[in-house]
């Protein structure tokens, strides 16, 4: 590798980095895969964030290979990307050319990198890379580091007032009688709380959105607003704080994005050095990326720029977007705090704050980070708080940060599954699971997409490995996979090139893939909320779907509440599940083996495609 190539230090050249910087490389074999890690950057203009940077990242080997003797370089699908800074490789040696100092995880401990980054600090995770921010996994900070970061205290005196009420009631909505209003809300299971509540709209035209919004809506094929949109749009447009509770797949994303775009259009334009006007916080990278995809569809017509800030990807392109200026930032809390600490952006202009999947963020332990971020935002902002469930922790946080909010609930405030999904729960032993999975795949496999949830990362890789050896076109996704591989697996699954995807709960929220025919819970999740979210990946936007769940004696403590969810959704409860619920209080059950592991680990970050995803498909086609 030529460390003096000018392209390494040219901040404008990240699009042009290619494998010619390092010469050819041998084909990926297991012994080499462990020493490299890679990730995608997000490039392109700030208002069209779909582009990808290209490049390469390799760990240093103990001895330098003779590249002239190696076969030609064959890049994997999608390419690689070179970040900046001196990172740590997941395998513990090799100093990835990452963004900041990367601390990999394997098992329960940490691995330390030994390379020298361009930030000037050598080895073992010390110092800072040029991307800025602190060390941590994927160039970000660990949760312990984030808790110790002290962001500067903001002075909110002498704030410039801003406009946030943009709602104009259409004549047809104003003409609704009280009887019509009650009938409409009852037919769509809309429950509202608060004072001066606006009436729901019944057509897209009633919202008085700009014409180009309506054109995009028509192109997307939407016929009428979903219940959360019908009631949520007038509430959000009035500028009041809002709590929205609705099941997954109900259209919550557009329920807050379109009013946010209207809000941005009414504010003074950004000047150099100012941060975003709208901030959307999301719990996972996948959800953040999907939110931005929707923002681009509508915002590009109004020249409203957006960017996605999340860990697991190089900081360089993200920093450039922030420095260039964007009206919308969609971010995961950890990476955003890194950017704020390094002063790559600020939140002084934020007047519209969205917390999406707030219950999931609290489940993941993000409450301290959320409090830090909200402390940087002016108190007279508009805050919109979206959740699929309403546990006490979510209610407590909302009470502290929202002022005089509207509250809209679609369906029951209690945990409830989508009635469009046919749910089948089978009581099995651990050793019966895999054979039952194979029989089930033979029954349902017709080329449609099938999503299989597995509780642990290691179990996810093991099941995927076995499926591929048995000839099933499965790919896996979980938190130990680097962002490049996760993007690639999702693209393969969405396109149908790989019709089976196995996943941990990283895909349980926000994953919006059209036409998922079937969800299979190979392992029952650790909470009933996650069960509802998992099966919610099918049966979206009014479509029908099926969910099969393997339930063991180790899950007996969930049996009674699961039966209630099934009964509320009009599903058949098997006698075996009823018997297990009756016996759950008097017996203790242990866990079995066969593809189960409670430890961390898996096969993470072994290069662009890792672990189980590189296993060749078996020769026979079993369906």
UniProtKB/TrEMBL annotation:
EC number(s) stated in the UniProt entry for this protein: 3.6.4.13
Pfam families the UniProt entry points to: DEAD, Helicase_C
InterPro entries xrefs: DEAD/DEAH_box_helicase_dom (IPR011545), Helicase_ATP-bd (IPR014001), Helicase_C-like (IPR001650), P-loop_NTPase (IPR027417), RNA-helicase_DEAD-box_CS (IPR000629), RNA_helicase_DEAD_Q_motif (IPR014014)
UniProt GO MF annotations: ATP binding; hydrolase activity; RNA binding; RNA helicase activity
Region Disordered: start-end pairs: 1-36, 82-148
Gene3D superfamilies tied to this protein: P-loop containing nucleotide triphosphate hydrolases (3.40.50.300)
Sequence ranges assigned to domain Helicase ATP-binding in this UniProt record: 233-408
Ranges annotated as biased composition (Basic and acidic residues): 98-114
Motif (Q motif): 202-230
Coiled coil: none
PROSITE patterns registered for this protein in UniProt: DEAD_ATP_HELICASE, HELICASE_ATP_BIND_1, HELICASE_CTER, Q_MOTIF
Keyword ATP-binding recorded: yes
Domain DEAD-box RNA helicase Q, first and last residues per copy: 202-230
Entry protein name: RNA helicase
Natural source organism: Acacia crassicarpa (northern wattle)
